[in-house]
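Bumping with the actual sequence this time:
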Amino acid sequence: MVLLALVTGFVVLLVPDAPEGLWQWLPGLGTAALVWLAALLPVLRPSHQPTT
């Protein structure tokens, strides 16, 4: 998430006509995507159930 905030800073500096809300929605949406991905990883992994 820290890397995402740093990337946002670079994007805003490199894009001269960046909208004012870019500082808020880019890290917000990126963090939300990371949290959702972290929540979905255990669900998407195959379970290792012992066979009897």
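The tokens above came from a reply further down the thread. The chain has a mean pLDDT of 82.
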